[in-house]
Amino acid sequence: MQRRTQQREAIKKALGEAGRPLSPHEILEEARAHSPGMGIATVYRAVKQLVDADWLAPVEIPGEPPRYEVVRQDHHHHFYCRECGRVFAVQHCPGDFRRMTPRGFRLESHEVLLRGVCAECRKSTP
Amino acid sequence: MQRRTQQREAIKKALGEAGRPLSPHEILEEARAHSPGMGIATVYRAVKQLVDADWLAPVEIPGEPPRYEVVRQDHHHHFYCRECGRVFAVQHCPGDFRRMTPRGFRLESHEVLLRGVCAECRKSTP
DNA sequence: CGCTAAATGATAGCCTGCTATCAAACCCGT
DNA sequence: ACGGGTTTGATAGCAGGCTATCATTTAGCG
Q1: Does B28 share its domain with B62?
Q2: pLDDT tens-digit series, residues B96-121
Q3: Helix (H) or strand (E) holding A18
Q4: Residue A47 lies in a domain
């Protein structure tokens, strides 16, 4: 059976507090604040379990390792900052993707990725 | 200076005739029809040159090797068939991404990826 | 407590996509 | 047709992200 370990708690805490999707390495860094000495293997193991348990959802970005965010009900998309590499959730999906789908194709889902510079990076590098 | 070789011509022909973005391995397969015995290294070399020359544009898909399509003027997006893995260009971008951008962020570009099953795969696997 | 199965950390290994290397083949101006 | 620099094909090597392995530590039931 599943045990409640210091490490897994630290990982869940890190993801919950971040408020944005984190990569495995970001998770490791944040979680080490609560549980020093944690190894990367533990992060990968915990992430796999949490995804299987529907507590985490992967956020895929081309050419980047996946980020993971705590699952939420609302439909939303993401913003990728090319300066710091951080990913943020954004609201307001402009639906209307049926019309884009070619005749005869079955549309099952869609992804929107915004790219640019986040507010924090705009300040530091104007 | 740049020579006009059978292989590079075959690669350009394959990409031009495909009418959709191709991965390096797809390019290799198609180009071998025109130039048997071609090696994968030649494909990677040609693709790099053609991208630099603005004749090809990469199409990035999370967790997949990039596809490459002949550059075109119109703004468009892509459809990924989960059955055959082929990528297709689609029209009708639902603009309106300013409204999605968080306050203070600078939006520079956006990507829309539709996922589902293409017409051909719908027929063969209903 | 004491025990046992679960979890951890370190690290070697795997996988995939891509690049470097180099001898052989080829393009093309002369 | 010649010759020299370009291109090619084969393959070894690299990089990054992830998984497997295994001795050690630990949670938590009894």
Answers
A1: yes
A2: 899 999 999 999 999 999 999 999 99
A3: helix A6-18
A4: yes
